[in-house]
């Protein structure tokens, strides 16, 4: 993968840039490159830090994780989609059941792994 230009800024800026770049790549039909961008963002796993301009930016990582899970699902990579969704659910284990990210996972049918007998589908 070519070195992404968004790696030089703060972690918050990195996650924002990754989301924007991935969205643009998907709109252009380049899902493979979008997947690489989101995978790189996901690898940063920074969930609880502060940034002067954005405040707590855990939601940026969470949004990118949800986007990554959705893209894996769209590409037919269901095992990876469930793994990413599971990590996201774990980061939200104390959240209200109506949390936007949990609602999004339910909408993608990624709220539970299909082997746990409680929903989801492959």
Task: Supply the key terms.
disordered C terminus; disordered N terminus; Serine Threonine Protein Phosphatase 5, Tetratricopeptide repeat; mainly alpha; 122 residues
Number of strands: 2
The CATH class label is: Mainly Alpha
Count of runs of 4 or more consecutive helical residues: 5
In total, how many domains does the architecture comprise?
A: 1
Order of helices and strands: HHEEHHH
Q: Label the CATH architecture.
A: Alpha Horseshoe
Query: Biggest sheet, open or closed, and with what strands and sense?
Result: 2 strands, antiparallel
Instruction: Indicate the overall shape.
Output: globular
CATH topology annotation: Serine Threonine Protein Phosphatase 5, Tetratricopeptide repeat
Could you tell me how far the N terminus lies from the C terminus, measured between alpha carbons in angstroms?
29 Å
- The proportion of residues in beta strands is under 5%
Can you describe this structure?
This protein is mostly helical and 122 residues long. It has a single domain (5-113), classed as Serine Threonine Protein Phosphatase 5, Tetratricopeptide repeat (Alpha Horseshoe), CATH 1.25.40. The protein is built from 5 helices and 2 strands. A hairpin with a 3-residue loop joins strand 1 and strand 2. The two termini are 29 Å apart. Mean pLDDT is 79; it is low at 1-8, 47-55 and 117-122.
